[in-house]
Specification:
With 502 residues, the chain is α+β, with helices and mostly antiparallel strands. It folds into 3 domains: 242 residues, no CATH class; 76 residues; 56 residues, no CATH class. The chain has 13 helices and 17 strands. Strands 3-11-10-9-8-7 form a 6-stranded mixed β-sheet, covered by helices on one side. Strands 6-5-12 form a 3-stranded antiparallel β-sheet. Helix 3 packs across helix 5 and helix 6 runs antiparallel to helix 8. The chain is flat, with a radius of gyration of 35 Å. The termini are far apart. The N terminus and C terminus are likely disordered.
């Protein structure tokens, strides 16, 4: 898909919150060859919804990338603002700080299978370990993202089942409140040089429509049946609500407002630094040619000489009290505290350094809200990923939903960052109360091992158990040569027993 060029010829300007924001004028498809009237109405509705949501999603992308402009305050001259380049990455931290706590470990079943339904090969072919973190990051940035599934074209090199992530910036969907599923969705898959869509995938319960715009402007649809009889799209939403099933963005209005104020504070600090470097002075009773080289040269010269005035009076030079920048730093700290309260991101992650480093208990308390949010989000995301896994298995095997497939679940890494010593101490205490816990795979997860490390540890344990069993078996077999049934072997009567004749 081509990169967005929203400074194109087809644009208009809308004023939002006092700032100019470019909005592309994309023409809704009026006629699509190969679809009926009902499908065309769905396509129009999805296109209009996507076009309506696009400006806000693009604005959040601007804040995420740190490209938001300085807002004019009226107190700082416009020419001064234009000379200052100030960047603040707080919106990006509000997204990444939570996304880093959602680390996918794999799919599991109640039986504890390492790779249920042999999903590992399908996910590896789709680079799911690389795709899913990006989808989660996009969901927290734009309120949601989407995971689509389809049968792949194996002959052209695609996986058997194609799993793809779609960002909300180029996608739209509608929600069925009664069945709690997506009942229609669209994803822009390609744009032209002007940023206008020229290829769209539309997902319906019974078919997937691939729309292509010809050079003449006409749209043509290619139809593929949906083998499962349902929309092959699952949303990954952040903080979904009853009235907002597709969630809301981590880059909220509060985050953007606080970021604007903090960015303005940085600009004011930059301007104040120049005045702080050159203190203000006053000279009374000097001649007209005292500052012939300029006031700035007089301020930086090591030696400064002033002659008497016309009446022969000695000049008086005084220095105004030096301005302090402490109020600006305190104001910046206040905005950092507000941002931490709005997002749950610890203040220490925003560049606010304290003199005394916090203790382990203080760090855990700072992360408590972020950890609880991550735990809640992992349950929500796990529900969608569970349905993705079920669709992948059904598309690959062509079967119906089985009871075992319904019980598949998602394993996440513990979002709370704890030290290995603390985890080991807690595990020892729990094993004393529950001795069987030491033999469980959950104990390895509790100790902080990743799923790959757990797999290797269990494989090493199996090899060790096999060697131990073989060694014990050899000792038993070797001992049976000397004793059978626990009794000594009989000695022949004519054998020499080493005792001489009497």
């Amino acid at each position: 898909m081509g990169k967005l060029s929203y400074l194109s010829r087809v644009q208009t300007t809308a004023v939002t919150r006092g700032s100019a924001m470019n909005v592309l004028v994309w023409e809704t498809p009026r006629f699509v060859s190969g679809v009926d009237e009902a499908e065309l109405d769905i396509i129009k509705g999805l296109f209009e919804k996507w076009r309506r949501k696009y400006p806000r999603n693009e604005l959040r992308s601007v804040y995420f990338d740190g490209k938001m402009p300085l807002k004019e305050t009226g107190n700082i001259p416009r020419e001064a603002l234009q000379k200052i380049t100030a960047v603040l990455d707080w919106p990006e931290k509000s997204v990444s700080a939570l996304a880093e706590r959602s680390v996918f470990e794999g799919f599991v079943t109640p039986g504890g299978d390492q790779d249920p339904f042999e999903l590992g090969s399908v996910l590896d072919a789709n680079r799911f370990d690389l795709e899913l973190p990006q989808a989660i990051m996009s969901a927290y940035k734009h309120s949601c993202s989407f995971i689509t599934t389809a049968r792949g074209d194996v002959a052209s090199g695609e996986p058997e089942v194609l799993v793809m992530a779609r960002e909300a910036l180029w996608s739209a969907a509608t929600w069925d409140q009664r069945r709690r599923v997506v009942d229609a969705a669209m994803a822009v898959t390609s744009t032209d040089d002007d940023g206008r869509p020229d290829a769209i995938d539309v997902y319906l319960p019974y078919a997937v429509l691939s729309l292509t715009r010809r050079p003449s402007g006409a749209w043509v649809a290619d139809r593929r049946s949906s083998p499962l009889g349902e929309v092959l799209v699952e949303p990954l939403a952040y903080d979904a609500q009853l009235d907002r099933p597709f969630g809301r963005s981590r880059i909220s209005r509060a985050v953007m407002n606080i970021t604007d104020h903090a960015l303005t504070t940085i600009a004011r600090t930059e301007i104040s630094a120049d005045f702080y470097a050159a203190p203000r002075m006053a000279a009374l009773g000097v001649s007209a040619d005292a500052f012939s080289k300029g006031k700035w040269q007089a301020a930086i010269d090591r030696w400064f000489a002033i002659t008497r005035d016309e009446d022969g009076n000695l000049p008086t030079v005084t220095q105004f009290p030096q301005m302090t920048m402490q109020p600006l730093t305190e104001l910046y700290r206040m905005y950092a505290t507000q941002f931490s309260g709005a997002t749950g991101v610890p203040v220490s992650n925003l560049g606010i350094v304290t003199d005394n480093p916090p203790s382990a208990e203080a760090l855990y308390a700072d992360d408590r809200r972020l950890v609880s949010t991550a735990n809640r989000q992992n349950r929500v995301l796990g529900s969608s990923l569970k349905r993705v896994a079920q669709k992948v298995v059904r598309l690959r095997d062509g079967g119906e939903m089985s009871d075992e497939l319904r019980q598949i679940d998602v394993a996440w890494m513990n979002p709370a960052f704890t030290s290995p010593a603390t985890s080991a101490d807690a595990l020892v205490k729990l094993s004393a109360v529950f001795p069987w816990l030491a033999e469980s795979e959950v104990a390895l997860q509790f100790a902080g091992f990743t799923q790959a490390e757990i797999t290797r540890l269990l494989a090493d344990k199996q090899r060790y158990d096999a060697r131990s069993f073989a060694a014990s078996l050899r000792s038993v077999v070797g001992g049976s040569d000397a004793s059978i049934g626990g009794e000594s072997a009989p000695v022949p009567a004519d054998a020499d027993n080493g005792v001489g004749d009497i």
